[in-house]
Recover the amino acids of this structure.
């Protein structure tokens, strides 16, 4: 089982990259008053067939050639449901995929957020060709960051691979998400 939400985000976002997505949106919404924490990853990748979509929450259903199991989505679904939440998955061939996991915020079984700034930094740096959008809401206050904001000249996306840029992304997210 993945230990925190940032690892689930990383796993699902990497699936988006593998599915040929050029746009990936990641949203985290923490609402303590409403007792709700949700994470959403949405992409414009190739999507899943209805047949595969019907069995994607089975750990033995995977498209990977390197392994016979795909545990990320089944574990995320199980974790959300264990926490009194829900798991929503929509996908259409040629249109992309939407994955959302909702958790009861006060559930003792809810995974912690983890190091989301480091995860977002790794995604931006590891795949600068992707148009990433990250939104984090905490009790109604919103912080967002996208690759389009960071790269003034679209042809200069490789600059996102630089260590100093990655560290700035991580530190900027940490500082802004503490508000």
């Amino acid at each position: 089982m993945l230990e925190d939400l940032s690892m689930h985000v990383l796993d699902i976002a990497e699936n988006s990259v593998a599915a040929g997505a050029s746009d990936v949106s990641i949203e985290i919404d923490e609402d303590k008053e409403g007792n709700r924490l949700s994470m959403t990853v949405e992409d414009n990748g190739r999507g899943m067939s209805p047949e595969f979509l019907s069995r994607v929450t089975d750990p033995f259903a995977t498209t990977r050639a390197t392994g016979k199991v795909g545990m990320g989505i089944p574990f995320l679904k199980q974790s959300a449901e264990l926490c009194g939440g829900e798991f929503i998955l929509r996908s259409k061939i040629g249109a992309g995929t939407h994955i959302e996991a909702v958790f009861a915020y006060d559930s003792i079984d809810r995974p912690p957020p983890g190091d989301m700034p480091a995860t977002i930094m790794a995604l931006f740096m590891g795949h600068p060709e992707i148009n990433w959008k990250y939104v984090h809401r905490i009790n109604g206050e919103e912080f967002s960051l996208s690759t389009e904001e960071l790269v003034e000249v679209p042809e200069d996306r490789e600059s996102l691979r630089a260590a100093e840029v990655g560290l700035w992304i991580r530190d900027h997210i940490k500082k802004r998400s503490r508000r």
About this structure: The CA atoms of residues 87 and 101 lie 5 Å apart. The domain at 5-177 is CATH 3.30.565.10 (Heat Shock Protein 90). The first strand starts at residue 23 and ends at 31. The radius of gyration is 16 Å.
